[in-house]
Amino acid sequence: MLGWSVTVHRDSWGPSMSKDRILARWNAGISGVDWVLALIKNRKGVQLAVGGYPSTFSVYADDVLPLIGEPVPPDSPLNERGVWNVYLNREAIARCGSRERLLVEVWDQS
């Protein structure tokens, strides 16, 4: 296990990687999924697929957007050691409703 590629996007029909649906994307080290697993543990989302190719989670925007907001808060997964290649789509984030469902796709980078 080398780490994870994480993509947060809007949960709607169509190609999952269309530009206007991607809210954030980054690469992270081995603990790079701990933040989303904590949401699941606290019943703030559900895991839809397991295995890392990808692992997929459904979460509410109001639980994720504060973590990737402007400015990025100190407890954000984006501030963890080993995070690189960060892309934030500020316009798409601003248009996202707080009770909107988001998909978090996590790809194993091993």
- Indicate the radius of gyration in whole angstroms: 13 Å
Q: Estimate the strand proportion.
A: 25-35%
Average of per-residue pLDDT values: 90
Number of helices: 3
Determine the structural class based on helices, strands and strand pairing.
Answer: alpha+beta
**Shape from CA axes?**
globular
Euclidean distance between termini CA atoms? 5 Å
Which residues sit in consecutive blocks of at least 5 with pLDDT less than 50?
none
What level of helicity do the residues show?
10-25%
Run of helices and strands? EEHEEHEHE
Biggest sheet character: 6 strands, antiparallel
Number of strands: 6
How many structural domains are formed by the residues?
1
Strand order of the largest sheet: 3-4-6-1-2-5
3D structure, described in words:
The structure is a single chain. The protein has helices spanning 34-41, 61-68, 90-95, and strands at 4-10, 22-28, 45-49, 55-60, 84-88, 101-108. It is 20% helix and 35% strand. It is α+β, with helices and mostly antiparallel strands and 110 residues long. The longest helix has 8 residues, at 34-41. The protein has a 6-stranded antiparallel sheet with strand order 3-4-6-1-2-5. The protein is globular. The mean pLDDT is 90.
Question: Could you provide a short overview of the structure?
Answer:
With 110 residues, this protein is an alpha+beta fold. The protein has helices spanning 34-41, 61-68, 90-95, and strands at residues 4-10, 22-28, 45-49, 55-60, 84-88, 101-108.
